[in-house]
Specification:
It is a single chain. The protein is α/β, with parallel strands linked by helices and 274 residues long. The protein has 2 domains: 89 residues, NAD(P)-binding Rossmann-like Domain (Rossmann fold, 3-Layer(aba) Sandwich); 165 residues, Mur-like, catalytic domain (UDP-N-acetylmuramoyl-L-alanine:D-glutamate ligase, 3-Layer(aba) Sandwich), CATH 3.40.1190.10. It is 30% helix and 19% strand. It has 9 helices and 12 strands. Strands 7-8-6-9-10-11-12 form a 7-stranded mixed β-sheet, sandwiched between helices. The chain has a 5-stranded parallel β-sheet with strand order 3-2-1-4-5. The protein starts with 10 loop residues before the first strand and ends in a 5-residue tail after the last strand.
Length: 274
């Protein structure tokens, strides 16, 4: 379990006690925090870890909490508790943001974050497999496998590989990925966003959270208008001056259907003159 002294003494509201909610409540309690939780399902509330206070958060005074931690499936654009939290001035975050805040207390490590409309799980599992085969301490989480806070911290030199949906990115403020990957953007989840452009902007926030450092990299597959626009925008902001900005297109990789193993070619770096 991943815990942090930074959570100790704070009071968190956890809305939703499915897998990520139970993981969040357990990690916060183990960190010395006070946790008040709610789930509409009686059976879910019964699974809350010992020490969790159960309260009907839909009517509770939210100003008593330091943060409202919600499940990624909660629609921020139309759920009443999201609006109530905004009115109360209480931040709305998810378990990925808690992981980001716990990172300074973990052994030195790196994080690879993967987002996109399609192919996230496959890419995450593949990167994790490559790292594991190379002998590096690694684990995968986020939108795949066990919730990240339920997993044991990696030893020094480890790599956390996270599949990140737009919902999870919306609930994250400070995840500074060492490598951030964007696969593609096609129309999806438009019931959660004002427009297709707003959905794309949610994906782009993965790069906006990256700090400017020579050791960080952004990898973008430029096979649609939205990903090309995001790559160009990062280039115009001078992203390459401190970070590495790389893009690859399907035409760079070539046809692979007839090949017995997964192939790849050297990616090309975006230069200022592009």
């Amino acid at each position: 379990m991943i815990t942090a002294k930074a959570f100790g003494g704070k009071h968190y509201a956890v809305y939703g006690l499915a897998r990520s909610g139970l993981s969040t409540a357990g990690a916060l309690l183990a960190s010395g925090a006070r946790v008040t939780a709610w789930d509409a399902k009686v059976e879910a509330r019964a699974k809350a870890p010992a020490g969790t206070e159960i309260a009907y958060l839909d009517e509770a005074d939210l100003t008593q909490f330091d943060s409202l931690v919600v499940t990624p499936g909660l629609p921020l654009n139309r759920h009443p508790i999201a609006q109530r939290a905004r009115e109360a001035g209480v931040e709305i975050i998810g378990d990925i943001e808690l992981f980001a805040r716990a990172r300074p207390e973990l052994p030195l490590h790196k994080v690879v974050g993967i987002t996109g409309t399609n192919g996230k799980s496959t890419t995450t599992a593949l990167i994790h497999h490559i790292l594991k085969t190379a002998g590096l301490p690694t684990t995968m989480g986020g939108n795949i496998g066990l919730p990240i806070l339920s997993q044991d911290p990696l030893p020094e030199g480890g790599v956390y590989v996270l599949e990140l949906s737009s919902y999870q990115i919306d609930l994250t403020q400070s995840l500074n990925c060492d490598v951030a990957v964007l696969l593609n953007i096609t129309p999806d989840h438009l019931d959660r966003y004002e427009s297709f452009e707003a959905y794309a902007a949610s994906k782009a926030r993965l790069f906006e959270m990256q700090l400017e450092t020579e050791s960080h990299a952004a990898v973008i597959a430029e096979d649609d208008d939205q990903t090309r626009a995001i790559a160009s925008g990062l280039g115009e902001k001078g992203f390459w001056l401190r970070n590495t900005l790389i893009c690859v297109r399907g035409s760079d990789v070539g046809e692979q259907a007839s090949l017995p193993t997964l192939q790849g070619r050297t990616m090309r770096r975006i230069l200022p003159a592009r």
